[in-house]
Design goal:
The complex is a heterotrimer of chains A (94), B (120) and C (211). With 120 residues, chain B is an all-alpha fold. Chain B is 60% helix and 0% strand. Chain C has helices at residues 24-38, 44-56, 59-71, 73-81, 83-90, 123-126, 131-134, 136-144, 146-152, 189-193, 198-202; strands at residues 99-104, 109-114, 162-167, 172-177. Chain C has a two-stranded parallel ribbon with strand order 1-4. A two-stranded parallel ribbon of chain C has the order 2-3. Classes of the chains: A mainly beta (94), B mainly alpha (120), C alpha/beta (211).
Chain lengths: 94, 120, 211
Amino acid sequence: MTSRYAVGDRVRICARYAPGHVRTPFYVRGATGHIERVLDKFLDPEREAFGINAGTETQLYRVRLNQSALWPGYTGEPIDTLELEIFEHWLEPA
Amino acid sequence: MPGTPDHGLSREPARLIAHQPHDVGGQPDGPVNMAEHELSPFEKHCHALLDVLAAHKLVNTEEKRRGVEDMGEVIIGSLTYYQRWAASAAKVLNEKGLVTTQELGRKMVDVRAQLAAEEQ
Amino acid sequence: MTHDHDHTEPHAPIEVDVSDGPDYFEVMVHALQELLVDKGLIDADEVRARLELIDSVEPSRGAALIARAWTDPAFKQRLLADGSAAIDEFGIDNYDGTHLIVIEQTPEVHNLVVCTLCSCYPRPVLGLPPDWYKSRAYRARAVRDPRGLLREFGTDIPPEVSIRVHDSNANMRYLIMPMRPAGSESMTEAELANLITRDSMIGVTVARLPR
């Protein structure tokens, strides 16, 4: 089973804004981080939301972001991070 | 994001479509209300029913969520968590032709009468 | 967009208006179930069984799991390596089919879990989430102001400790393994489990101290 990205790869979460049921939160669109973990393939939730229950298996990753880079005026510490799950079609190499 | 072109999102109509009200990560908000409540029988029943609907893929978890998200900010803000689940289930089942408006409407009249009689 | 009063709380005050009769949504849920049973699409027994299952899971289940990890280093490693496999080994029914990731608190990193998009939560090990976890305020602020949020829960993380927020936004579910407190060395597994609160397994607090 090959995945496009490996742990440690620098990635950017795509800055795309079409409407629909999207599990990539608005606040991380366009953010750059790195792959923390390669997970399994899961059905694409954007299609599941409309009853497509098979055939859309997509690689899921955990991505780590730096909070100071993510939020203008972040009030925490420079070493603070955030991790979340991003499907492969929402990633591009950074 | 610094340096990112705004994709037309500085205008409210675009934002309303592109940024759905449930997607709240990073939005300003107030102190967290720590009060907890025990789920009512309705709420537990609703949770159990939706779990069963998901297991049968009659209303899967993403469909349920999408049904809630599409209600928009005013309705989301005015309904409780499980009221939203109930309304979403009704909507998705209707979309699929599994439970039509007519069927549900008639059954709700019957159930209402039944429950009202039981409450006497 | 801020709200003058938070009318997006998941539990608005329930106004019991007896003149209205049975609640509209309660009627709707009963009606949906009856129709689907009549059509042969679901069984009433399935709903009953799921009700019992929901009622049976408490945070003590997660606390027992963590207490085992605290006392059995090999189990702890298995739990951290593959949460789903380890809870299965421990005899926990992973009834919702989700994938569990267990994250341990360390002296260098304090972890916190949130689901900004809805209310994803490790239900098979912790039961149903508290209202505040589902609230707009928690979901909005945990990712942007975790230190301020933690202070509201009475948890002060020093600046040299990194805070790592986990947004449970897709198929994984997260359980935090709190650090075992000093002074607990001679405690039994059952006594240790009493120190491990639900909130410490979400990451908004740390484990209780031994008396």
